Amino acid sequence: MRFSLLPKLYNSPARRLLPPFHRRIRFNYMSTDLPEPKPPITAAEKVQKFQQVFHSSPTDSWDKCWDQGLTPWDLGNPTPVLVHLHNTGSLPKGRALVPGCGSGYDVVAMACAERHVVGLDVSDIAIKKAIELSSGSPNAEHCTFLKTDFFTWCPDQLFDLIFDYTFFCAIEPELRSLWAKKMSNLLKPDGELITLIYPIDDHEGGPPFKVSVADYEEALHPVGFEATQISENELAIAPRKGREKLGRWKRSLHRASL
Ligand SMILES: C[S@@+](CC[C@H](N)C(=O)[O-])C[C@H]1O[C@@H](n2cnc3c(N)ncnc32)[C@H](O)[C@@H]1O
């Protein structure tokens, strides 16, 4: 009863009798000056914001972006083509590595009794996220996460498989030959490197830096890798379709033993 009288009171001269609290409610309720809801931030704006923070902090750039949740590359799920390759038995078993593993979805997705997967990332926050994610998975016992720098890390065992998605494009282009050398040093002589070649376009700057198949060849051929497959990634997520290829690389045993 008390509440049903309020609208009448608001519209009558007797509204002055209302206590200040109720007058305030009326003012907000009637106002047409309410702030417009902000439009959702676009993918391009997210990348721009990430780059701003990334370049503002040369020493701990990645950690800072992880800390602020500026991770526009993160699918929030495992990479569909990797899941497909895993489910169809098309990935080498044994020991696998995901450098620059971020939240670790891909590490968990391909870990199994026949394949132990190491995820490494230079960001402490990324690694903490990945450990938290994996701890809820039945595959947790087949994963290891390490906070370390890919370029200086020297494990005591080599790998049968290395999977690179958005790590090659995340590093400075001048580091690409070092990246290839490190891949070569970390893989067993008959090990396989699987890359998702992305983003294939012609934008300037980064990360992510633009890439092409030729960029991978230029880095990988000198250390003996040859492509066994380069194909369009039909399972790329919609915004990346047409700008992403699957590249599978192996060393010819003859050249690798030289
Ligand atoms: C673009 S993100 C990709 C993350 C993940 N692969 C994905 O697709 O969601 C690049 C990642 O590489 C990590 N990173 C950059 N430089 C690194 C380095 N030298 N060693 C290890 N990780 C590095 C960053 O912290 C970041 O998590």
UniProtKB/TrEMBL annotation:
Gene3D superfamilies recorded: Vaccinia Virus protein VP39
Signal peptide location: none
Domain of life: Eukaryota
InterPro entries cross-referenced by the UniProt entry: SAM-dependent_MTases_sf, TPMT
Record Pfam families: TPMT
Transmembrane residue ranges: none
MF-aspect GO terms: S-adenosylmethionine-dependent methyltransferase activity
GO biological process: methylation
PROSITE patterns recorded: SAM_MT_TPMT (PS51585)
Keywords recorded for this protein, A-Z: Methyltransferase, Phosphoprotein, S-adenosyl-L-methionine, Transferase
PANTHER family named in the record: PTHR32183, THIOL METHYLTRANSFERASE 2-RELATED
Protein name, per record: Thiol methyltransferase 2
The species this protein was found in: Salvia splendens (Scarlet sage)
